[in-house]
Design goal:
The complex is a heterotrimer. Chain B has a two-stranded antiparallel sheet with strand order 1-2. Chain B has 13 helices and 2 strands, in the order βαααααααααααααβ. By secondary structure, chain B is an all-alpha fold. Chain C has helices at residues 2-5, 10-35, 43-59, 64-86, 93-115, 142-146, 151-169, 171-181, 183-188, 193-219, 231-241, 246-270, 276-294. The chains are: A alpha/beta, B mainly alpha, C mainly alpha.
Chain lengths: 507, 349, 313
């Protein structure tokens, strides 16, 4: 076996945290190597070192036996390494061609050769089955198309080693299967691939071999033949995390109802959405990213005001939609982006936990009672097991899981009627995921209605009582969980067999 | 090179780095002074003497610091909420215009009534001037930096127009200046025969009030939240636009007070050279104070000392007094760098 | 009626182009900086420094073009300082820009007073003379308006073409646009975001410096205080008005020059009836109106004013 790429004893520390601990790994020519590990295991750090975004504290990387200079993406590209990032690195206002050609021509040239580049992109698209119009502006493309552009960027530079970081997170199950076929075609042509994922099934479906990272260490390497899901799961997590189970429960009265709600923001739109959520049930919303789920969440969260339609909380049709209104009606909101929306990184834990209630019980005549606020912060830290130096610590320094616990503590404290959870476990490690799930189920047991929006079908199937799919701003009717399969959901997410429901009689 | 957030901000860093920044700016200016052939030690010596070497010098420095405390507070409160008010100069002049319009005899009130009326109207004038760019920002997304800057020019021309027209003093021998304010509008001197006036005490009080608002009030909290992350603040239910509007009222009002205090305390009337750039210098004061309201007092006195000292020095040493402007500008840039370095460490790889 | 007739005089258009020239340089300079994602509020001071240093070089015996080169160099150095503070160090672009303006202005004034401690009337130089382009300058109206200008004005127009070509036709221009749209995309393609941004800010600031030198080497023949008089801030408004495109920015600058030239003539016409300050206000008022009109429509560079930290997403 000849290694096209070999990492030897790579270590990287961030302050007290060791993200990568002496990791050694070889990639053979024509191989698809799965890199498995939960969030925070150090996969992305390792790949960022490989690609030159970070410099390792120790260790070296060889491509075809030659040492790769550290810290230079340019050198990695020149050595034939191509990377498809989890969050696409595309300039949205530029064309596909601009995005692909960038950096491939000498900066001193007085003229770009667009014609030649266009021909080559079309040719590559045909050879590898990755069709996309070279002159389209990226912002007009679907998520799947954008991923194709990302892959084309690498192929255009004759990449021989392709790294894909969580490539299926944005795809339907069927699209993911299509991607696996494309990858098989790549290796048949002599490319080698590292496939990063935290999903066991995908690794087994797509890869030849798997390397497992846990807590920054390489804990095992296995050929895919003969490996079992159970074995992989145990290696990945290294401890048993009991999955919280939902107990059967009879749903109560309607707590939240949307009727013919339409809204618009940029290119996103909601069209005539109808939805009914009852006390004590979890309704899961599936869909490929960018189909309007975030806008739906913003309407329910009070951040976006609908152009038409009715939003009803309890028995009351809301006349005025704003974050404050929604908080006042007892809607607990867990936002999609903890950093941008959920918390204010440069403020303390105390200041963050009172951000929704500072005008109410934490202030008197315009002055804030910081003693009271601090006591509440301490309660949240204790009850929700937030690991932190203290209530005065800046939130920026917390881990993702602890940030999410903080948000849970803030919004759950007042015993909400409705919980809006938008991608609540994105980027969290297994322990934190289980914690969030447990909290959602507890709220359900207390009789709250929970609207769970997620791109992770496994999560939705595990928690939801009923499910619906969003596609191009429309919402399907609710389906009971035990009546749908993952295949069915996948097809609906791609628009096949999708039925839009105009309105429900939510009398 | 790369910046890494520090996990802890030590006290040594928080004090040491800003001190280093000031020393750095003095070193730069020492170099420039040497270009003129003078000795930097002698020049700095003369500056210190000119700024605080005598009772007269010290009082002069505090007098100069008074408007800077107001404009410094104006910038500090706005910058907290990331409302980039670069227009304190215009707001100051409108505050002065309001004072000149109402205080030159139009309202023949006794001082206990006239003072609050004039203060309030000066604040109102300044507040309204800043409200325009703020409204344009919240309604149309127009960057307030450019609009506040452009408004400075418009308002200055407007004041010039008034001084050659409606507000012109008929006894002014043709100079573009307003009539003197009436005796009941004038602020008393703190020490008889000296220039330091009651405006200084009002400025200190304003700083203390701003400090309480900043630390204790819901509004102060809202302003900080909006400044750090407006999107998250909006999500949490903080009415971002309303907070920005309130911030504009406060900030513009404070700058308007600077105009009131200069007219009623020091100059007695409105002229076109009422402010030699107090509005712009206020930005420097606010940054040197790291936006802390009480820090503004110290920073304003420091900056005023540099200017007063440089004026005195240039009369004897022959080094252009513009060295003060250079020193203030360099210390602004050095200070923002220092503040950043207290929060981040530089890693070279 | 007279007010309308002015519109058809060649002298009005010639003045409009003359007034527009420094604005074209400044606007192009700001445009390059902002296209790379960096707001440069140092422009007002950089133009002042360009005006002073270019003039000083000529006063000390240099050639006029040497003066222009010196102004460009001084601009680039100040741009490097601004770039260093806001790109690798990631400081607030607003505060730093204002600081650069204060610093550049103070340094110019200090140096001027140092060089000429006791002058009462500002020393003069021999400025650029109008250079009629053969044949073209004989076209009625258009000829005197466009082709009897000084060489620096012609350079301004050539610059518009060059900057357009650079941004849209060259690989380096694509790099500049990408770091202003999504720096992570540029880094993923092996570009050094910091270097590209620094170079763009330096190049843009050099143009601002040249724009400043136009004031002392072409429009006037001496340097005095406050002579930039807000032109830099107007350039920032013109960038927005031009939707970050060189061609539209040129149009905006000419429109602005036309307006300014027109109000100067109206001012003479109106005599003492209307206060002259009202006319002088108009350019600034118009800039604000332009900002409001354009605010909703334009596609601004997505990464404008967003500092980029390597590997942070």
């Amino acid at each position: 076996m000849t290694a096209v790429l070999s990492l030897s004893r790579i270590s990287k520390r961030f302050g007290a945290l060791t993200a990568n601990d002496a990791i050694s790994l070889d990639l053979a020519k024509g191989e698809i190597l799965g890199l498995l590990g939960e969030n925070g295991a150090g996969k992305t750090t390792l790949m960022n070192i490989l690609f030159g975004h970070y410099v390792a504290d120790e260790g070296e990387i060889r491509v075809d036996g030659k040492v790769l200079p550290p810290g230079e993406p340019k050198a990695a590209l020149a050595a034939g390494i191509g990377m498809v990032h989890q969050h696409f690195t595309l300039a949205d206002n530029l064309t596909v061609l601009d995005n692909i050609v960038l950096g491939t021509e000498s900066l001193w040239r007085l003229r770009s050769d667009h014609a030649a580049a266009r021909r080559r992109i079309v040719q590559l698209g045909e050879d590898f089955g990755l069709k996309v119009h070279p002159d389209a502006v990226v912002s007009s493309l679907s998520v799947g198309e954008r991923q194709r552009v990302e892959i084309l960027k690498a192929l255009y530079r004759d990449a021989r080693i392709l790294i894909l970081d969580e490539p299926t997170a944005v795809l339907t199950p069927q699209e993911a299967a299509g991607l696996f076929d494309t990858l098989k075609r790549f290796v048949a042509k002599g490319l080698s691939i590292i496939f990063i994922s935290h999903k066991l099934g995908e690794i087994i479906d797509a890869c030849h071999r798997v390397a497992i990272l846990r807590g920054g260490k390489l804990v095992a390497e296995r050929p895919i033949d003969g490996v079992s899901r159970g074995e992989l799961a145990e290696l990945m997590v290294g401890r048993s995390v009991p999955q919280p189970k939902a107990t059967a429960r009879q749903p109560g009265a309607t707590v939240l109802a949307l009727k013919a709600v339409s809204a618009r923001r940029g290119q996103l739109a909601l069209r005539d959405v109808a939805l009914q959520l009852r006390a004590g049930e979890i309704v899961g919303i599936a869909g490929v990213s960018g189909n309007g789920q975030s806008l739906l969440a913003d309407v329910v969260g009070g951040v976006a005001v609908p152009d038409a339609g009715q939003v009803r909380v309890g028995a009351e049709v809301l006349a005025d939609i704003s974050p404050r209104q929604m908080i006042a009606r007892g809607i607990a909101r867990i936002p999609e982006d903890r950093h941008a929306e959920g918390l204010i990184g440069d403020m303390s834990i105390t200041e963050n936990v009172v951000s929704e209630g500072y005008r109410g019980r934490f202030s008197r005549r315009g002055l804030i009672d910081w003693g009271n606020a601090r006591t509440f912060a301490e309660t949240v830290i204790r009850d929700y097991e937030v690991k932190c130096p203290g209530p005065e610590a800046r939130v920026r320094l917390l881990s993702g899981g602890n940030m999410q616990k903080l948000i849970l503590g803030r919004v759950m404290a007042e015993d909400p009627v409705v919980v809006l959870a938008n991608q609540p476990t994105r980027g969290l490690d297994v322990g934190a995921v289980a914690y969030v799930h447990e909290q959602l189920l507890k709220a359900r047991a207390r009789g709250a209605g929970i609207l769970l929006i997620s791109e992770d079908l496994d999560e939705l199937l595990a928690l939801s009582d009923q499910m619906a799919v969003m596609y191009q701003g429309q919402l399907s009717p609710l389906m009971a969980r035990d009546q749908v399969t993952i295949q069915q959901l996948g097809l609906m997410m791609a628009g096949q067999g999708f039925i839009h429901v105009e309105s429900i009689d939510a009398a | 090179m790369r910046l890494e957030p520090r996990e802890q901000q030590t006290v040594a860093l928080s004090f040491g780095l800003p001190m280093l920044a000031l020393i750095f700016s003095m070193a730069v200016c020492a170099g420039l002074v040497m270009l003129s052939g003078a000795s930097p030690f002698q020049v700095f010596g003369l500056m210190i003497k000119g700024a605080m070497g005598s009772q007269f010098a010290l009082l002069e420095t505090l007098t100069r610091a008074t408007p800077l405390i107001f404009t410094g507070l104006a910038a500090a409160v706005a910058f907290r909420a990331k409302l980039w008010n670069i227009g304190a100069e215009a707001q100051l002049y409108i505050g002065a215009v309001m004072t000149a319009v109402l205080g030159t005899g139009l309202l023949p009130l006794p001082w206990p009534l006239l003072w609050p009326v004039l203060m309030f109207s000066a604040m109102l004038g300044g507040a309204l001037v800043l409200s325009i760019p703020t409204l344009l920002k919240t309604r149309f997304g127009v960057d307030e930096v450019v609009t506040t800057l452009l408004l400075n020019f418009i308002i200055l021309l407007f004041v010039s127009m008034l001084l050659e027209g409606l507000l012109k003093d008929p006894m002014g021998l043709g100079w573009p200046q307003s009539k003197k304010v009436i005796a009941d509008a004038q602020l008393p001197r703190l020490i008889t025969g000296k220039r330091l006036h009651l405006g200084f005490v009002v400025a200190i009080a304003a700083a203390v009030i701003m400090w309480v608002i900043d630390r204790r009030s819901a509004l102060g909290y809202e302003m900080r939240a909006v400044g750090h992350n407006a999107k998250a603040a909006h999500f949490a239910g903080i009415p971002v636009n309303r907070v920005l509007a309130k911030t504009a009222l406060l900030s513009g009002g404070l700058a308007g007070l600077a105009g009131w205090s200069e007219v009623t305390g020091l100059k007695g009337n409105l002229t076109l050279d009422l402010s030699p750039g107090f509005g712009y210098t206020g930005i420097v004061v606010a940054m040197l104070a790291m936006l802390h309201p009480l820090g503004v007092i110290a920073a304003a006195i420091f900056v005023a000392a540099v200017f007063v000292g440089a004026d005195a020095m240039s009369r004897t040493a022959g080094v252009p007094s513009y060295i003060a402007h250079v020193m203030v500008a360099v210390s602004l840039l050095a200070m923002v760098t220092a503040i950043m370095l207290t929060r981040y460490r530089v890693r070279w790889r | 009626m007279e007010a309308l007739e002015i519109l058809f005089t060649a002298s009005l258009w010639a003045a409009a182009i003359r007034i527009a020239s420094p604005l074209i340089f400044g606007t192009l300079g700001e445009l390059i900086c902002e296209r790379a994602g960096v707001l440069n509020l140092g422009i007002e001071g950089i133009m002042t420094a360009g005006a002073f240093s270019g003039w000083l070089a000529v006063f000390l015996g240099g050639d006029l073009w040497l003066g222009v080169a010196v102004a460009a160099l001084v601009g680039a150095v100040l741009g490097l300082l601004h770039g260093f503070l806001v790109v690798p160090l990631g400081l607030s672009q607003h505060v730093t820009g204002i600081g650069i303006t204060l610093l550049a202005t103070a340094l110019s004034y200090y140096a001027y007073r140092l060089a000429f401690p006791e002058v009462t009337s500002p020393p003069k130089i021999e400025p650029f003379q109008p250079f009629p382009v053969p044949v073209l300058s004989d076209i009625p109206v258009l000829g005197p308006a466009l082709f009897q200008q000084t060489p620096l004005t012609y350079l301004a127009f050539i610059m518009v073409g060059l900057v357009s070509w650079f941004l849209y036709r060259t690989p380096a221009g694509l790099a500049v646009r990408t770091v202003g749209e999504n720096p992570a995309a540029a880094e993923a393609q092996g570009m050094n975001v910091t270097t590209v941004r620094l170079l763009a800010v330096m190049a843009g600031s050099a143009l601002m410096g040249i724009g400043g030198s136009f004031i002392t080497l072409s429009a006037f023949n001496s340097f005095f205080f406050e002579m930039t008089n807000g032109r830099g801030w107007i350039c920032i408004a013109l960038v927005v008005f031009g939707a970050w495109r060189p061609g539209k920015a040129l149009l905006g600058a000419i429109l602005f020059g036309l307006f300014d030239a027109y109000q100067l003539r109206l001012q003479q016409l109106a005599g003492a009836v209307v206060p002259y300050q009202l006319f002088l206000m108009l350019p600034f008022v118009m800039s604000i109106i332009a900002l409001i009109v354009m605010s909703r429509r334009v596609a601004y560079p997505r990464a404008l004013m967003v500092p980029y930290r390597k590997g942070e997403r």
